[in-house]
Amino acid sequence: MFIAVILLAVVLSYFFMVCPRRTEKKRLLAISTSMFAHRGYHDMGHQIPENSMTAFHAAVQHGYGIELDLHLTRDGQLVVFHDDTLERLCDCPGRVEDLTYSELKTLCLLGTDERIPLFTEVLAAVDGRVPLLVELKIPTSSLKICAETYRILKHYSGNYMIQSFNTMGLRWFRLNAPHILRGQLAEHLTARESREAWLLKFLVQNLFCNFLGRPDFISYRLSDLPHLSVLLLQYIFRVPIAVWTLTTSEELSRGISRYHIQIFEKHGENY
Predict the structure, then answer these.
(1) In whole angstroms, what is the distance from residue 179 CA to residue 171 CA?
(2) Residue 38: active-site member
(3) Domain limits, the chain
(4) pLDDT at 90
(5) Which of 45, 84, 136, 270 is 20 to 30 A from 178 in CA distance terms?
(6) β-strands 65-72, 35-38: how paired?
(7) What average pLDDT does the structure give for the chain?
């Protein structure tokens, strides 16, 4: 009897931790497109770098939704850029959060004429023509990026959703802007080197922090699926699942057949 009680408590605790928000599924399915171009419809074969204005224009022209990444600069500006550091994309040292926008806007993306855009510039260019999937990069305990993102999005009339690996960012939106659709990003974090504590990575990869953010959808790396918590959410709670990053026709086919949202990159010809 005692063991049965313990097992029941464990099961109930597990369900409590991973349970999503249940009230916004219909709205999410109504506004989200299936296909999101990862960091825009970028293609260095045509000198179009990721998270560039040209990549975003190309996604709009093809009718794809846009997945993009936000950082908050030292002077409080929201810029669209993926990496924490500038080495890979701009061939120079430094962290995005340590520089001002005036310093960042002088840099080129991958040796092209493209510059690091402001979030407001991207919103003006897209102008609601395709939905946006906005990832918040939150490398420290500061959640100022959440407040600034919300301040700007309040004036945007297009469809959008936010997502982040940082569950505390999702919690901020849960408490301060619950009407905004939010997604928990996850992958097999414990198998990869990073600065975060192993326990924190373990909790996020198994979606045990969902009780803090109560996400509307899960965004998981396709190569790390199937995963028990994702299966539970998908088939028991009927939660929409986004998968990333699909770079081959085989991955795209698997993503389309099994999951609601596909986050893909252009490799070779248009899919």
Answers:
(1) 13
(2) yes
(3) 23-264
(4) 98
(5) 84
(6) parallel
(7) 94
Q: Which two tokens stand for residue 164?
A: 């982040």
In whole angstroms, give the CA distance from residue 271 to residue 176.
39
| Residue 23 predicted with pLDDT over 70 | yes
**Would you tell me which CATH number, out of the four given (3.20.20.190, 3.40.50.150, 3.30.930.10, 3.40.50.620), belongs to the domain 23-264?**
3.20.20.190
For residues 252 and 271, what is the distance between their CA atoms, to the nearest angstrom? Answer: 9
What pTM did the predictor assign? 0.95
Q: Are 82 and 149 in contact, with CB atoms under 8 Å apart?
A: no
Residues 81-103: pLDDT tens digits? 999 999 999 999 999 999 999 99
Per-residue confidence (pLDDT) for residue 267, from 0 to 100: 65
Structure tokens given for 153: 């999005």
C-alpha closest to that of 55 among 73, 72, 37, 31: 37
- Candidate list 38, 71, 227, 260, residue with the active-site label: 38
Catalytic residue among 57, 62, 82, 188: 82
R_g of the chain, CA atoms, integer Å: 19
